[in-house]
Amino acid sequence: MAVIRRRRRFSRLFRGIVFLFVSAAVLGFFVYVPFFTLSEIKLIGAKYLTQEDIMKVGEIYMGEPLFKLETDVVQSRLSKDLRIEEVSVRRRLPHTLEVKIKERIPLATVSCDYGYLDLDRNAVIIDSYKSLKTMKIPMITGAAVRDLYIGDEVDDEIVKKILDFLQRLNEETLNRLSEVAIVEADYIVMYSATERPVQIRIGKMERLDEKARLTEDFMRDLETNPHPVEYVDFNYTTPFIKLAQ
Questions:
Q1: Phi and psi (nearest 5°) for 169?
Q2: What b/e readout covers 165-178, taking b as 16+ CB neighbours within 10 angstroms?
Q3: How far apart (Å, rounded) are the C-alpha atoms in residues 174 and 166?
Q4: CB within 8 Å of 201: residues ≥ 6 apart
Q5: Cα–Cα distances in angstroms (integers) from residue 66 to residues 13, 23, 29, 92, in the given order
Q6: Cβ atoms 126, 168 nearer than 8 A
Q7: How far apart are CA 170 and CA 15, in angstroms?
Q8: Tens digit of pLDDT for each residue in 60-112?
Q9: pTM score over 0.85
Q10: Domains of the chain, CATH where assigned
Q11: Which residues pair with 200 in a beta bridge?
């Protein structure tokens, strides 16, 4: 009986060793076989962030074994980027990494002492760069912003009021504005991003909902207006349109 028990134990041990060996071989096959190497990143939900941004922040490299890539680690790295509000990362066999994100939306750009900053609706800096990028958001001019970096908040009250106004505009209207100029304290003028820029005088930062609605209506009608417009003034209860000569 003792001999039989020893044989059974040896048989179980042998089967266990074989199982571990086969498992290691299978795992090694899936990890290192060239067929399962990363060759594509499927980026979902991004409007401003590029694949290059995602690879840099997530420390992702094309050609690395897909099964060696730790998706939870990549997701953690990406979630720390202020430009990203939500993110999920998944493998898609045989060679794709799917990155689904929800961005923090930049509402405006402002110049600073070392380049340019993108601001969200809360005046938080979510991106910075030295050379001006081609983006469909307006530039705020006339504001002095210095010694601020990603993650900092701009404390200029006029800038905050402008952002409060811009977030009330629909995306189509926001993307058709090129500049928001602070002419003087609490007096704002905007410019359309059209072939012939039109001045939009917002004036004092009051009646924001009404002025946002008027701006949307004006920008929509501007496409079909046969008469060139020099400026429109929303600073008064009754809007005034000045036609170009």
A1: -85, 150
A2: bbbbbeeebbebbe
A3: 7
A4: 189, 231, 232, 233, 234, 235
A5: 33, 18, 12, 9
A6: no
A7: 66
A8: 999 898 888 899 999 999 999 988 989 999 999 888 999 999 998 899 999 99
A9: no
A10: 34-103 (3.10.20.310), 108-243 (3.40.50.10960)
A11: 190, 232
